[in-house]
Amino acid sequence: MRHWLVRATASAVLIGGASLAFAYSTGPPPTRTHGFAVSNKPPESDCTICHQPTGLVNADPNGYVSIVGVPQAYTAGTSYALEVHLDYNWSQDPFATATPRKWGFQITAVNAISGDSSGAFVPLGIPPDSLQIMRWPAGSLSIFRGRNYLEHTVADYHWGENQDGQSGPIVWHFNWVAPDADSGKVYFFAAGNAANGDSCSVCGGDHIYADVESTLFAGDLGVFHPPHPGNFHTSFEPPYPNPMARCTNFQFEIAEEGLVDLAIYDLQGRKVRSIVHERLAPSSYGNFWDGTNDSHMKARNGVYFVRLIAPGLAKPMSYRLVLAR
């Protein structure tokens, strides 16, 4: 297992039925695998957005997540049995509680050239596993819209005989069907959340881990595929979702290096939250707003504006944004 620490600036999408007892008991939203930048896609975010105030992944040596069964080389159209293992030693945790532990994960397979999904995940539907495929909604503007994800479900999260309450290690079983033709190198990004089940995601006791594996096409062993060149223009896509209840996603591109400012303002023009204020290189970027102000207090429901100032823009770009919890 290999650990990767990257700055998480990826997008987030809100899905219904969320619960703070576990990141999203119905399954996490897309882009929570902690995957590093691939092609022109920026790094993905992870569950530390809600579950680990320090923002650290793989920080506690008492646990891990691991992707098991990825072949060194794949044959086109072949199905491979994979597993995600998640474990944590609660006996060493000062935040351990008497409540049942909560476990969850998300995995994606990404083509090294395009940065989009490669092959297909197949949930087996064999108890105790109950898994689902998470896809982006139709019309999504996210730069990650070409990626699909496999993750736990509300059934997998709640069944008393399944992952809920077990002490670990937890194992999820599924298949990955390789692409029908040579697609070059494929990365597998996975993240897992070992939560103490106290219904408070920001109180400590939830531990986020990430892992990455890769495979090559059987005929391409040792062959280097050059990265897909970026061709960026300075732009700002509408936030999604809007209205927002807990998180909304921002996607923008920068064509020339310089100071970038992305911030939330109220109707009186007062700055509510600074999202980005730093010098950025040409690239695609993703970020989010969690509905809090610069003091990390919840902003009131209502109408706001998100404004982007960046090199190459003749004037700031802004969008109306509705916060409705």
Q: In short, what is this structure?
A:
This protein is mostly beta strands. It has helices spanning 48-51, 154-158, and strands at residues 63-68, 73-74, 79-88, 102-111, 120-123, 131-134, 149-152, 170-177, 186-195, 206-217, 235-236, 248-254, 258-266, 271-280, 283-289, 302-309, 317-323.
Low-confidence stretches: 1-25, 157-162, 221-229
Beta-strand percentage?
Answer: 35-45%
What is the overall shape?
globular
What is the CATH T-level topology of the largest domain?
Immunoglobulin-like
Task: Name the helix and strand elements from N-terminus to C-terminus, one letter apiece.
Answer: HEEEEEEEHEEEEEEEEEE
Q: What is the spatial order of strands in the main beta sheet?
A: 2-10-9-4-7-6
Gyration radius, to the nearest Å? 20 Å
Average pLDDT, all residues: 79
CATH class assignment of the largest domain:
Mainly Beta
